Amino acid sequence: MIRVRGHFPWYLISLALGCSGARERPAELDPGVLARVDSAVGDALAKREIPGAALVLVQDDRVVYAKGFGRASLEEGIAVTDSTPFVIGSTSKPLTALGVLRLVQLGRVALDTPIARYTPELVWSDPRAAAITLRHLLTNRAGLVVGHSGDSYRRPAIVDDSALGRLARRAAAMPLPFAPGTDYAYSNRGWALAGYLIERVAGRPVEEFMREEVLIPLGMTQSTLAFWEVPNIAQGYVEGREVRNHPQNASLTREYGPAGMFVSTPRDMGRLLVALLNRGRTHDGGQFLTPALVDEALRPQAAAASELGGPTRYSLGWEVDSMLGTTTIRKAGSVHTLVSLWVLLPERRQAMAFAFNREDYQVLPLVANVASILAGGRAQPLAAWTPPPETPAPAEATLPPGATTRWLGRYDTRTGDAVVSLRESALTIVIDGGSARLVPTSDSTAAAVSDLVSDAGKVYSFRRNGTLWVGSDSLGIRIAH
Fold first, then answer.
1. Is residue 395 part of a domain?
2. What is the pTM of this model?
3. Which of 387, 421, 456 is the endpoint of a domain?
4. Same domain assignment for residues 31 and 77
5. CATH code (residue 138)
6. Residue 426 belongs to what domain range?
7. Are 335 and 424 members of one domain?
8. pLDDT tens-place values along the chain, 481 residues long
9. What's phi and psi for 339, nearest 5 deg?
């Protein structure tokens, strides 16, 4: 995908549009254009062999296209529709930012006031944390440690109301890699901490606040942060060599909810994009936030490294640059299996929302293809899937009898329980809904042998304190032998 550096002060255009009075009724997209969009999406799914996807297109002040493709579940034969719920991953962050801005509108918080004023109960180990503001959290400039796992990650119960509080206390106990406001580091902890602050200031669970103060006013009635309450979420898949799509559950945990665990449908995604493209004016003519606050949400505020590669500018949860040849405001999200991508093209008065149920970054040129079709251009061919190089068979270590017995048991991990056991004398791990044979490579490590492209050759480390690691990442802790 071609990435163009730089950005355009789109909010000036937005101000002009907001002051121009009544607009003409937006034109429908030409049926020929929609047919080319259908063809581009269908071609991408076929070439990449992705089970299912959805696409929503917004023109001016309404959704003009909302369609599902393929299957939400291959096993049950359920089709993707514009009402299929997806866990959206990090596209949750712009929603959490809107929750903070709702508190700003209510006069409960200010973006540039230190968060210590709102969360005095947090005791920070690093004195520099006294300078952290909400704006720092929402632009990834707070100086918080990146990533998810701590020294020994423990997965909380998903319905535990104390989850965000525990995470906030752990974050406060960690030293800051840099002083707030002096650098950029994409931190899920920072966004979870923003959700914790919402809870503390609002005096109610963040899931409840977001539903009543953000989602319902936007018309996103099929969306929620309470992911555990949603039935029939699209089944996620991971890539295999022999079996192309292995079902695998999404990685979900309540303590990181504000950073990446919202559930939404394509139809609701379109309603959000309508409001953002129209400075808070919702699909039914209501007003969500003030126009100035919507401008603030999308205004580029800090230099950043794009999740999709290359330099960009970061607003409150969005990347802002000219990647698609015009001002491009975008956010991508993934929970390892389910993927979403939202794109605003304010100069063209267009927006797009994509959702997929298998993570495959080689499908991303589809975004540029759809944008090109909408602008009257042509789609470029996508590369068809080809099998990756085979992973060499691991060299098995010679160990004394019973040396791997201490590895056996059930481990509590961020994606649920993992079980290490002997199956017909073969050491096996069951994790993330899939299984792999383990080949011991030392007295504390084992390599996975699996059809899954992402797992083949993965090396697990079994430490004597009962923790399970992958490389330098603490994956879980043993809870039963």
1. no
2. 0.86
3. 387
4. yes
5. 3.40.710.10
6. 405-480
7. no
8. 222 222 322 222 232 223 333 333 334 678 999 999 999 999 999 999 999 999 999 999 999 999 999 999 999 999 999 999 999 999 999 999 999 999 999 999 999 999 999 999 999 999 999 999 999 999 999 999 876 544 333 444 456 788 899 999 989 999 999 999 999 999 999 999 999 999 999 999 999 999 999 999 999 999 999 999 999 999 999 999 889 999 988 768 888 899 999 999 999 999 999 999 999 999 999 999 999 999 999 999 999 988 878 899 999 999 999 999 999 999 999 988 999 999 999 999 999 999 999 999 899 999 999 999 999 999 999 999 988 888 899 999 999 999 999 999 998 776 667 899 999 889 999 887 678 999 999 999 999 999 988 888 899 999 998 999 988 888 888 888 8
9. -130, 145
* Domain's final residue, options 354, 387, 420: 387
Same domain, 210 and 271: yes
φ and ψ of 48, to 5 deg: -90, -5
- Judge whether 399 lies within some domain: no
3-state secondary structure the chain: CCCCCCCCCHHHHHHHHHCCCCCCCCCCCCHHHHHHHHHHHHHHHHHHCCCEEEEEEEECCEEEEEEEEEEEECCCCEECCCCCCEECHHHHHHHHHHHHHHHHHCCCCCCCCEHHHCCCCCCCCCHHHHHCEHHHHHCCCCCCCCCCCCCCCCCCCCCCCCHHHHHHHHHHCCCCCCCCCCCCCCCHHHHHHHHHHHHHHHCCCHHHHHHHHHHCCCCCCCCECCHHHCCCCCCCEEEECCCCEEECCCCCCHHHHHHHCCEECHHHHHHHHHHHHCCCECCCCCECCCHHHHHHHHCCCEEEECCCCCEEEECCCCEEECCCCCCEEEEEEECCCCEEEEEEEHHHCEEEEEEECECCHHHCHHHHHHHHHHCCCCCCCCCCCCCCCCCCCCCCCCCCCCCCHHHCEEEEECCEEEEEEEECCEEEEEECCEEEEEEECCCCEEEEECCECCCCCCEEEECCCCEEEECCEEEEEEEEC
